[in-house]
Amino acid sequence: MGGRTDDPAEVLRGAFLSALDAVSPARLLAPHLGGPRPDFILAIGKASVPMARAALEAHAGVPALVVTPHGTAPAPEAPTSEAWSRVEVIAAGHPVPDAGSVRAGRAALERLGSLRAGQRALVLLSGGGSALLCAPRGVTLAQKQALTGELLRCGADITEINTVRKHLSAVKGGGLARATRAGVRTLVLSDVVGDPLDMIASGPTVPDPTTFVNALAVLDRYGLAAPEARAFFLSGAPDTPDTLPDSAATVIGGNRLLLEAAQAYLTDRGVRTLILGDTFTGEARALAAFHASVIRSVQEHGTPAPRPVALLSGGEATVTLGPDAGRGGRNLEFALALLTELGGTPAGLRGVHVLSAGSDGVDGSSDTAGTVLRPDSLDRARALGLDPAAFLRRHDAHAFFDALGDLLRTGPTGHNVGDVRAVLIE
Q1: H-helix or E-strand spanning residue 215
Q2: Phi/psi at 165 (5° precision)
Q3: Which segments constitute the MOFRL-associated domain (predicted)?
Q4: Which residues pair with 318 in a beta bridge?
């Protein structure tokens, strides 16, 4: 950025918001909405409202069911316009399913089950659908809620969590497509590393390569008792379908596109930008340690690129919570861990700005997308008497960055294509 007067923190914020706009559901769906008119549209997930809006602009008047998280405003056209005249919107729980999720699961099964052979269903799927669409199988809703909470707290990644959830559901793991005689076409926005169709929203319309044995292995790996789930997995009940001949699914966007859009924004402003990768997983603290080592390498040796440079990474980290955990999420935890890592080095955060945010606008148990670190973040924290390591130990990153006034609040964005970590080294 040499010589430029732009505030680096605002440049990173601008890159994040511009990237969200560049990969908006409407833009990504547009090339895929031609062809035969569907007989029914089902939109599920954190991006369900904008995805449904785009589809109904192309296919006005088609009956539709939209399943969206609580707190997400319905499309402004609903329910007065012709396009939304036959739309039912159900708000449901996330990340833990609730009664709204069960209502949504029941409605989806009924609506798809009523379609005849030869008819067509268009399913618009985005992340968050695993919790939003719920039809408990082998367990009660309360038992499934408790198990979902345990999986989230123990640090299981999304693949492990969904492996368990889809084997306790009549809609996940291909169950939704199995329930209809109609042809099913699914367009998917991916929030899962590697874009595996069977894991995004737990794959309600695609064949499931996992089995009850795989689900049991996850419970064993984390030492979870879950007696009702274990009994069902061993009961001999029919497993999820491994073939669905009249169902096709396509990933239309994911984390890589988000990073490339952010890269384009920064490059247009004269910032050399490298994408480190879009497949980062694992504990947020371990991911922070890796990024700290890369930052030190740039500062001390000019590799993998000399300063000034922006480094982008994607994927999705996890956080293993203790019994007295505070408030936060993977992006806030990453930023706080990075601050503590760099705080003990000679160069520290000198000339370093970092944005860590989720594309959905909601980071874990917080009400923010994430945060922005600045070169003076540690000094400002010390001036307020805040010990970053103490906040990190109790997983209370939200309170830490709230005290600094550095939380990045966007509200729910209507997107869900993974996380962005952007490091700008002047």
Answers
A1: helix 212-221
A2: -60, -40
A3: 12-227
A4: 283
